[in-house]
Specification:
about 180 residues, alpha+beta, 9 strands, about 30% helix, about 35% strand, globular
Length: about 180
């Protein structure tokens, strides 16, 4: 696995089927193709982005400093064989939680159930622990979202608790390093 940073662009290269990289303006149509899908939005708060909102979001993500706090750091997941963005992964870095982040993901429904999210998140978690230097990450989802909590458990995340209809998971750098052995 290689981390490349060139002119502020972060690219995570693995030996698999996907690349995790910064968004670029040319990703707009691929991004719009999945982020508004009902099956993708079902467990996410808020409404899908309009084309204008998505354009602004991608432009902001393309130039966001990788250590900016109180910001969502979204990365495109590019399918190598199809040469298109099939989803995204990201981390919220909060100023009140130094060394920690909250991760999330969303993928085009045509690529669900094929291991792409697992592959992308493995690349991304290595990036957040090794390059960003985070000591822990958390993630949450609704209890009904078995695909998301199943992915978190396959990644080695541990259930921290359940509140009403929500589950919280966590993973430390040490736990991640032990799972890579």
């Amino acid at each position: 696995m290689t981390f490349v940073s060139w002119l502020g662009e972060v690219i995570v290269v693995g030996a698999g089927r996907v690349v995790v990289r910064r968004f670029v303006g040319g990703d707009l149509q691929d991004f719009l193709a999945y982020q508004g899908e009902p099956v993708v939005r079902r467990y996410l708060p808020g409404a899908a982005m309009s084309a204008e909102q998505a354009r602004d979001y991608l432009a902001g993500q393309a130039v966001l400093d990788e250590h900016a706090l109180d910001a969502w750091h979204g990365f495109a997941v590019q399918h190598l064989a199809d040469d298109r963005v099939i989803g995204d992964v990201g981390v919220w870095l909060a100023s009140d939680r130094p060394g920690a982040g909250d991760v999330g993901f969303q993928f085009h429904p045509g690529y669900h159930g094929q291991g792409y999210a697992y592959e992308a998140m493995r690349l991304f978690l290595t990036y957040v622990f090794d390059s960003l230097g985070l000591s822990q990450v958390t993630a949450g989802c609704e209890t009904a979202n078995s695909s998301s909590w199943g992915l978190m458990e396959r990644l080695g995340m541990r259930r921290l608790g359940e509140t009403g209809q929500s589950l919280r998971y966590g993973l430390t750098r040490e736990q991640w390093a032990a799972s890579a052995d």
